[in-house]
Target: Drug resistance MFS transporter, drug H+ antiporter-2 family
Amino acid sequence: MTATASKRDVILVTIALFIATFMCAIEGTIVSTAMPTIVGDLRGVALMNWVFSIFLLTNAIATPIYGKLADSVGRKPVFIIGTTIFIIGSVMSGLSHSMLVLIIWRAIQGFGGGAILPVANTIIADIYPLEKRAQVLGLNSSAWGIASVIAPLLGGFIVDNLSWHWIFFINLPIGILVLVMVQLFLHEEKRRVTSRMDIGGTVWLTVMLLAIMYAFQVIGQTPIQWPIVALCVLISVVASIMFIRRERLAEDPLIPMGLFSNRTFVAQNLVIALMSGFLIAYEVYLPDWTQGILGLRASMAGFAVTPSSLMWIVGSFIAGKLLVRLSPFRIINISLAFILIGAIMMVLLPAYTPFVSFLLISMIVGTGFGLTTTTSIISVQNVVDPSEIGVATSFNTLCRTLGQTLMISVFGIVMNVTMLRGVRQTDGASLKMMDKLINPLTANELSGTILPKLREILYQSLHNVFIVGLLLIIIAYLVNWTDRKKSESQHD
Model:
C-alpha cells in the first residue's frame, strides 16, 4: 500500500484478506462433507478423487504464476483477477450436471484460488512491519480453523436441507464482498512491468504436473494400463528436466533455482508438503468413515471434525506468540508431535469405534496444524532476501498445494485398489453398491446381508489410506530434525 494509507484502510484490507482466506479454506472441508451425496447424485465413485485433485492441481500450477505477476504488475490487480475466476468456477461447479462437468469447473475454480492465498500473505508482508507480521499471519491463518468449524456444519445443513449445489453457490456473496473491499481500500501504486513472464517455465511445470497426476489416476483404475502410465512418467521426467534447465537459464525465472541452495528453505517446504498431504487423508476420508461405516448423516459427520477446527484457531494464536520466543524449528517439531499422535490413533481405530474417538483425534490434529500454518510461512520468509519474500511465500503455498495434489491421487490409488480387491473377493458386491454405501441416504437400499461386508471393504480401504498418512508424518518429522542446527543458529 502507499505511504498515505490510513490505519482504517489497513484494517479493512486485512479483514478482506481474512474473508478471502476463509472462502478458500472452507472449500476443501465443505466439499468433502458433501462428497458422498454428490457421488450418490452424479455417480462415478472412481472419479471422486478428481473433484479434489483437479482443484489442487490447477491451484498448484497457478500459484507461481500469480506470485510472479504480483511482483511485476502489482498485488491488487492479480488478487482481483484470481478471486473473480474463483467465483466463476464456484458458480459453474454448482450448476454441474455430471461428474465430468463438475471436474472441469473445479479446475477453473482451483486456478482462480491459486492467487488468493499467496497474494494475501504477500500483501500482509507489505502492509505490516516484521514485528507485527507473525501475529497478523496467525490471525489470518485462524480463518482455516474458523472455516473448518463452520464448513462441516454448514455443509451438512445444506446437504440435508437444500442440495449439494449450494455448497458452491455460497462463494458468490463472499467473493463479491472481498472484491468490493479490496477495490475500495487497497491503495497500491501502479507498477511498470519490468520483466517478461516465464512462459517456457510455466508450460514445462504444467506438463510435468499434469503427466504425473494422470499417471497416478490411471494406476488407480482396473485394469491398469501400464503403457499409459509409463508414457506419463516419461513425459513428467522430461518436463522436469526441461523445467529445471529453463529456470537456470531464464532471466527472470518462475521459480529461482538459487532458493534451493538454502537448506532450511528446502527442508521446511518439504515438511509442509508432507503435512499437507496428511491433511488430505484426514479431511477427505474421515467423513467417508463416519457416514459409510457408522451410517451417520452428513450433519453429524461434520461434528466429528469440529474440535480440530476450534483447536486450529487456538494453535494459530499460540504460534503467533511463540514465534517471538522459539525458533520455527521447535514450534514445527511440537506440531508434528501432536499430528503424529493423531495419525497413530487413526491407524489403530476399529471399524465401529465410538464417536468420541473422532472428537479426540480432531482436537489433537487441529492443535498440530494450528501451530504449523503461520510458522511455516515465517520460516521461509526469514531465510530469503527481502526482495524474494513474495516468491518464497508463493513457493511455500505451492508446496502445500503440491503435497495435497499428489497425495489425493496416492490416497485415491490406495482406496480404489483396496476397494476393488475387496469387491472381487466378496460375493454379490459391486462398485455401484459402494457408491450407495458411501451416501447414507442410499445405504438403506442395500440388503442386510451384504451391508456388513461392504462396510468391511470400506474400512480396510480407509485403514490403508491412514497408514500411508502416518508414514508421511514420520518422514516429515525426520526431515524437520535434519534442519535442527541451521534453523536454531538462524533464530539465534
In short: Residues 199-249 form one domain. The chain has two domains: 7-198+250-491, 199-249. The mean pLDDT is 83. The CA atoms of residues 261 and 384 lie 11 Å apart.
